[in-house]
Amino acid sequence: MNRNKNKLILFLGIIFSTFLFNTRVFAADTLQEVQTPHGFKAFLTIIPLIVIIVLLVKRVDMLIAGFIGGVLAMIIGGISLVQANDFLLQSLPSMLTITVPIINSALAMAVFAAGSYTSSLTLVKRGIKGKVEYLAAFIVILQAAATYMSGIGGGSAMVIAPLAFAAVGAIPELVAGMAIAAAVSFTTSPASLETGIVSKLSNVSVADYVAQMRVFWLVFVAIAVIIAIYGTKKRKVLFKEEENEEFKNMSNKELLVNTIPAIFLLSAVIIGPLINKLIGFSLVTPLVYTVITVALIFICTKMTLNQSVNAMVDGSNYILVRLFSVGIFLAFINIINQTGAFVTIVSVAKSAPAALVVPTAVLAGFLIGVPAGAYVGSILTLVLPVVTSLGFSPVALGFVAMGVGLGSQMRFQLDILLV
């Protein structure tokens, strides 16, 4: 124990000395244009990125990984505490300004709390008349819809996966379908942290990114549904009749009414922009569908008005906490960027055939995403700067994000399956 304490004290001492040295020498410096490093210096600038990736793969907390990488970058690049502080004060506010995803995520979590998703699954179970493959298809669609509305892959899976496995069992193809549906949904959702990161790093608005990726989201969800149906039919799974205790005594009409908040919110998020375009002015806005969704939760579910409002406010906790964390992590990444690390990678990537760069980035994101698990936002802040610097389209960025998301969801769904 004393040996570990001595190591910790030594490590903190080195960091403190480094900060003090940098403050004395570079305190008067201002942020400058990033210069392309050459030779051995170029190799050194990449080391902090490699260290962060290794630590994330080993499931070290992203802020610890980012801090260690940031300190290394400060040593390598001679970056002062003043500059590092500037990066922090710039990155945090920028992440916390993605208001539409915050609102959408909060509303979706309130709909979760009201039980709209569970009641819809219960209703479908009663209506499929023993066709288990239909239930498997609906489970994947429900996973996609819930994730798309909330922007939270893990959160929706924690609710829906146990219900799915209780109904039809842990079918490998169903698990794969749910993983694909969740991955493509939260990485292209108008309510997700990942969409906010893509928007900030690429200077593309959330609405434009979501609109361009929607057709690919639908295509991959359809593929996920087909995989789930195929696996369920092939394995000849028997239907399980158990229903959720809270909803089994409700009539079909009551269940249908209970699902209305979820149906409305999904419609507002997906069809709202089209309605606004058709009528020529913005009618379906975040303010409008926020008020209506909260009202519907109060009218259609067992929640009181106070509980409905509180559920929405509490629902914002998830995304706000993660935006705060990623904002801090992004400050460390910006420190690394100041050393010229991303410029070095881009200069190498430019020599490769353009057709290979995006597939390579997607594959790299997937391979890192599997062991890194929940740190999708962190991985994106490492991968996307390179892709954006190469001038690729928002769709290309979306595919990279989906690759990272799929890797993380494969890990997450397997964890649920093993539990």
How would you describe what is shown here?
This protein has 419 residues and is an all-alpha fold. It has one domain (34-103, 114-251, 317-419). It is built from 18 helices and no strands. α16 (354-372) packs parallel to α18 (394-418). It is globular and about 70 Å long. The two termini are 33 Å apart. Residues 5-32 have low confidence and may be disordered. This is Citrate transporter. Keywords: Membrane, Transmembrane, Transmembrane helix. The chain crosses the membrane at residues 37-56, 63-82, 102-123, 135-168, 214-232, 255-275, 287-305, 317-336, 356-376, 382-406.
Give the arrangement of secondary structure elements.
Elements: H1 2-26, H2 39-57, H3 62-77, H4 81-95, H5 99-114, H6 116-127, H7 132-150, H8 153-168, H9 172-186, H10 193-202, H11 206-234, H12 252-279, H13 286-300, H14 305-338, H15 341-349, H16 354-372, H17 376-389, H18 394-418
Helix pairs in contact: 2-3, 2-15, 3-14, 4-14, 5-12, 5-13, 5-14, 6-7, 6-8, 6-12, 7-8, 7-9, 7-11, 7-12, 8-9, 8-18, 9-11, 9-18, 10-17, 12-13, 13-14, 14-17, 15-17, 16-17, 16-18, 17-18
Which stretches of 5+ consecutive residues score pLDDT under 50? Answer: 5-32
User: How many beta-strand runs?
Assistant: 0
Intertermini distance: 33 Å
Mind summarizing the main beta sheet?
Answer: none
- Tally of domains: 1
Number of DSSP helices?
18
Helix content: over 70%
Order of helices and strands: HHHHHHHHHHHHHHHHHH
Output the structural class: mainly alpha
Keywords: Membrane, Transmembrane, Transmembrane helix
Transmembrane segments: 37-56, 63-82, 102-123, 135-168, 214-232, 255-275, 287-305, 317-336, 356-376, 382-406
Protein name: Citrate transporter
